[in-house]
Amino acid sequence: MSKRKILLSVVAFVVVAILGTFLFFQIKMKEAEQLSDWVMHYYEKPEPEQVPSEFIQMNKAGFLDRPDSQFIFITFLSELMNRNPDRIATWVNQLQEFSQPQKRLLWAAAWQSRTDQGTALLKKLSESLTGEDKEYVLALLARKAEPFDQKPIQSPGALDLLWACFFASGDERYVNRVIDALKLSEGHGGDILIGAAASFSLGSNARTHPKVMKICLEAQRARPELSNELGKVIENANGTDK
How far from 200 is each of 127, 185, 191, 217, CA to CA, in Å? Predict the structure, then answer.
């Protein structure tokens, strides 16, 4: 084979490889977008029977292995469990293909659900597990889970967990807790960052979620001390901020 043919073959191989890689990432991006859309709009059309299959897809997409996303998705699952306690054991059983570290995330979600069914599942697991897994479950059972809307907001990441709970439930308590964080914009240091993140996330979600906009409008009328901050949020959502 001539050098020219060899060179053309190499070039063709590289082009195919590049196109293949590009297509792979395009597919991954599309999968990620679909999963994100399912999560963010779950409360509008709850589909509890789809939860295991969607989490299997999240796992395949790598979301449950990434520290920056795994706790958001597990917080989302814990709220789903709280709203569907009779499905907890079934969901965990259907996700048995998860790796051991990922199973621990499921157990943590069952614990955070704050349900009798979640506690019963963990007690049953503690009787069959051994070693570090047993110690992990027993450590969960020894503590009481605190509702996310009652936890102090000490970082912008805490806001992500509140939104995860809202997307799973549509419960306005979580949005109102984010609204609470707006007052931190008048603080110092890290508090200013949290306040800014709260304002941005409220504006972004009010733009795409009518229910969030409704909650913000109601809060603006009911909470005069935050009227100016909420006004900025609403302007941002409507695209009229300057």
Answer: 46, 12, 14, 16
Distance from C-alpha of 25 to C-alpha of 95, rounded to nearest angstrom: 26
- Taking the mean position of all CA atoms in its chain, how far away is CA 51? 13
For 159-192, letters b (16+ CB in 10 Å) and e give bbbbbbbbbbbbebebbbbbbbbbbbbeeeeebe
Extents of the domains making up the chain:
1-40, 46-141, 153-238
| Cβ within 8 Å of residue 88, ≥6 positions away | 81, 110, 113, 115, 117, 118, 121
CA–CA separation, 178 and 167 (whole Å):
13
What token pair was written down for 143? 């503590």
Q: pLDDT tens for residues 6-50?
A: 433 433 333 333 233 232 233 344 567 888 889 999 999 999 999
Cβ neighbours of residue 204 under 8 Å, at least 6 residues apart? 236, 237
> What is the number of other CB atoms lying within 10 angstroms of the CB of residue 65?
13
Q: What is the pLDDT of residues 154-202, one digit of tens each?
A: 999 999 999 999 999 999 999 999 999 999 988 777 889 999 999 999 9
Burial of 81 (0-12, 13-18, 19+ CB in 10 A): buried
Rounded to two decimals, the pTM is 0.84
